[in-house]
Amino acid sequence: MSIATLLGGCDVISRKQAMEPLSLYYTLGLGVGMLVLYVLFRSHLTEKRSYDLHRRFAEIFCALGLCMALAVLLAYGKAWLAEGHIGGVLYLSYRNFATSVLLTALPMPFYLSLRHRGHLATAAVLALALALTGIGDMERLVGRIVYGTAAMLDGIIDRIRGEFPGKELHIVATGGSAPFIVKFCRNKILYDKTLLMKGLWAIYKRNQ
Predict the structure, then answer these.
(1) Which terminal residue of the chain, N or C, has fewer Cβ atoms less than 10 Å from its own Cβ?
(2) Are 97 and 134 contacting, i.e. CB atoms less than 8 angstroms apart?
């Protein structure tokens, strides 16, 4: 993973950007770091211990989540002191990383709350920090993806029709996401959820 990330960044980002903490996290933390952690955990998982391993892992993730929540809240506090008000969700350069950490840590307080309800307060703090990272923008992001895919399909269909002048072409779409996308296309597209099975059945019948 580290090699793939490094090669993917070649000739794309500068050396200074590659040495930034977030870049080092993706290139070294996700690859080498996870491999080292796996080897360490693997060598100690079989040892007997006096504590519940699942709860210990949950506590570790809760601590990581609280640290990230503190970083997000401090960013908002700093903006409040500088501007005197906050007009909306702040843009955080580490938003994707913060969102990943908070989403990973968020279920852990609920697991720990099975024994102590006080951990629900931790879940509330993590949820608040997650909202402040701007995760609500995901709805707009999904909208852009849907409209972008529909526009791409219209472009492909127009190009194909241009290769067959004077002929009427019937466009058929299939797949789980197709109904949500074809309704935003300019071209008329028929949806058939069993198209793949029909094709496989036709191949089967032909080979009999």
Answers:
(1) C
(2) no
Residue 199 in tokens:
């094709």
The pair phi, psi for residue 190, each rounded to 5°, is -85, 140
How buried is residue 114: exposed, middle or buried, by Cβ count under 10 Å (0-12/13-18/19+)?
exposed
- Burial classification of residue 87, based on how many CB atoms lie within 10 Å of its CB (0-12 exposed, 13-18 middle, 19 or more buried): exposed
Across the chain, which distance is largest between two alpha carbons, in Å?
78
Measured N-to-C along each axis, helices 53-83 and 119-132 cross at an angle, to the nearest 10 degrees, of 50
Give 178: exposed, middle or buried? Use CB within 10 Å, 0-12, 13-18, 19+. middle
| CA distances to 99, 105, 119, 129 from 124, in Å | 15, 12, 9, 9
Q: Which pLDDT tens digit goes with each residue over 155-182?
A: 999 999 889 988 888 999 988 788 888 8
137 CB-near residues (< 8 Å, 6+ apart)? 89
Residue 31's pLDDT is what? 66
| Joined tokens for residue 47 | 């040892």
**Where do we find the tokens 């952690």?**
37
Pick left, alpha or beta for residue 169 (phi over 0 → left; psi -120 to 50 → alpha; otherwise beta): beta
